[in-house]
Structures are given as C-alpha cells and as structure tokens.
C-alpha cells in the first residue's frame, strides 16, 4: 500500500493485507504464514512527519522447539513508527533511509510504501523459541517418542546431564 502525501487527509486508517507469499523468506526458519498479514494502521500527519501506528495480525505455522510438532501461532503485534523527511536526517545518504533510532525512519519524495514496515514488524515478532504449550513434555531423549501423547519405558535417570540442564532451563 502506498501513501501519497500530497493527497492524504490529516489522518486516515490504512487497512490492508499482505499476501503470505511475500514472506517466503521465513520458510528457512521452519516458519510459514498460514494466513495473510492483516494491518489496520492509523496514519497521522504531524507537521512534516508521519506517525503510523496500529495492529498487525497473522497466523503462523511454527515448530515447537521441545517436541518438534508444528502448531499455529497467532501473532498480534503493534506497529508504532514515525517517518520524517530525509532532509531532516542527521546524515542521510541517498539510500540510507533508516536511522539508528529504531522508531524513526526517513523518507524521500512524496510517496511512502507501507508494506516494508509491516514486513519488518512481522519478521521481528516471529517467536524464536516457540512452544506448542507451556508444559510441553518434549521428546524422550532416548527413544524419541513424543511424551505429550506417548509413554515409553526408557530409564529417565539415564538422560544426559545436558538434557537435564536444558530441561530445567526450559521449564523456568
Ligand atoms: Zn511441544
Ligand atoms: Zn523413550
């Protein structure tokens, strides 16, 4: 979605969807979008700046780090950024639109594309250690059975020291 600065009202709501195919980059991390990415962003002029804020929502398929099952994860995040003309940037080189400050971005010209901001926000909020549920029992470290659904007769005391440490870390 593109905002044309000259045409825009002082304030409006940019509602839209980004197709999940745009996010194919995620697949390398065992993450896939199950739904389109929906956004509903309030765009407001503040002098020569723009404030863009609002919810971004989508559903992902992710893999539990403990039992390796895939499950749905509902992402509900909130974008809140400010855009300033690049002329006001401290040292804006031609294509260096982004400042060190995470929340302020710089734009050039009189059109702003919203999608890249939505895209970045989604990527930033992909869970890095997803758990299918808080108390996921994980896999048996000996036979590999999923202890959420199955039982096994492996000697639990034989699990490795590393495994025990990992377990206590994960259950904290
Ligand atoms: Zn799990
Ligand atoms: Zn087992």
List the SSEs and their pairings.
Layout: E1 2-4, E2 11-18, E3 32-33, E4 37-46, E5 49-63, E6 70-85, E7 104-107, E8 111-113, H1 115-124, H2 161-170
Parallel strand pairs: 6-7
Antiparallel strand pairs: 1-8, 2-4, 3-5, 4-5, 5-6
This protein binds zinc ion (2 copies).
One zinc ion (ZN) is lined by residues 140, 142-143, 145, 152, 154.
Question: Care to give the gist of this entry?
Answer:
This protein is mainly β. The chain has helices at residues 115-124, 161-170; strands at 2-4, 11-18, 32-33, 37-46, 49-63, 70-85, 104-107, 111-113.
* Bound ligand species: zinc ion
Instruction: Say how many strands there are.
Output: 8
Helix and strand pattern: EEEEEEEEHH
The rounded Rg comes to 22 Å
């Amino acid at each position: 979605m593109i905002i044309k600065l000259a045409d825009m009202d002082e304030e409006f709501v940019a509602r839209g969807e980004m197709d999940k195919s745009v996010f194919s980059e995620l697949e390398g991390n065992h993450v896939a979008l199950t739904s389109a990415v929906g956004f509903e962003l309030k765009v407001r002029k503040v002098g020569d700046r723009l404030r863009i804020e609002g919810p971004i929502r989508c559903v992902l398929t992710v893999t539990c780090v403990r039992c390796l099952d895939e499950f749905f994860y509902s992402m509900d995040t909130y974008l809140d950024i400010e855009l300033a003309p690049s002329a006001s940037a401290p040292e804006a080189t031609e294509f260096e639109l982004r400042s060190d400050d995470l929340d302020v971005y710089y734009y050039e010209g009189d059109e702003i594309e919203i999608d890249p901001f939505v895209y970045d926000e989604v990527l930033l909020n992909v869970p890095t250690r997803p758990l299918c549920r808080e108390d996921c029992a994980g896999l048996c470290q000996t036979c590999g059975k999923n202890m959420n659904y199955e039982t096994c007769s492996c000697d639990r005391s034989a699990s490795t020291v590393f495994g025990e440490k990992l377990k206590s870390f994960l259950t904290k």
